[in-house]
Amino acid sequence: MAKYTENFNLIKPEDDEYYDVADFNENMDIIDAELGAVAESANSAEIADKIGQPEDSILSTVFGKLNGFISPDGKGVRIIKSLQHIIINLPPSEFSKTVTIDPVDSSRCVVIMEVLSHNPITTSYTLSDTKLSASYTISQNTGCCMGFWVIEFY
């Protein structure tokens, strides 16, 4: 059963649970609202100082706190290095497509796939360091739309 963070009640799935995109989106909404509140109450220079830079190790910044986070299982730092969202539209005549993505270390990535069509389909994908290949099979002669989140960890 998932746990929650102390300050903002963000959902923290357990290591043996499947990750739910709805949980990710709910967490992002909470973070966005909190950062928006900070933005309204401070000037932009103060906000930049509080958010920091992705490589920060200063615990007074948001990135610094993330980079200093050690997972409860003691396996090390778990920080998102990059996040890409790709949408692939496949017409009825195509059943696979390869798209170029920003370079990643595919061994350090998690891919979350979302089927954006309302048709019953079977989908699959493969990820390399610079490409995402998606394919599908479908019982009807219609196209398919799939979304992919490519999340790379340091």
Describe the structure.
- The chain is of the alpha+beta class and 154 residues long.
- The protein has 2 domains: 65 residues, no CATH class; 74 residues, Immunoglobulin-like (Sandwich).
- Helices cover 23% and strands 34% of the residues.
- The chain has a 3-stranded antiparallel beta sheet, with no helix packed on it. The protein has a 3-stranded antiparallel beta sheet with strand order 4-7-6, with no helix packed on it.
Give keywords.
3-stranded antiparallel β-sheet; Immunoglobulin-like; 8 strands; 154 residues; single chain
Number of strands: 8
Poorly predicted spans:
none
The CATH topology assignment of the largest domain is Immunoglobulin-like
Helix content: 10-25%
Class per helix and strand makeup: alpha+beta
CATH top level of the largest domain? Mainly Beta
- Gap between N and C termini: 26 Å
Mean pLDDT: 75
User: Shape from CA axes?
Assistant: elongated
CATH architectural arrangement of the largest domain: Sandwich
Radius of gyration: 19 Å
Count up the domains.
2
Largest sheet: 3 strands, antiparallel
The largest sheet has its strands arranged as 3-8-5
Q: Could you spell the SSE succession in H and E letters?
A: EEHHHEEEEEE
How much of the sequence is in beta strands? 25-35%
The helix tally amounts to 3
Secondary-structure topology with pairs:
Layout: E1 3-4, E2 11-12, H1 21-41, H2 44-51, H3 62-67, E3 80-90, E4 96-100, E5 109-115, E6 121-127, E7 131-138, E8 144-153
Antiparallel strand pairs: 1-2, 3-8, 4-7, 5-8, 6-7
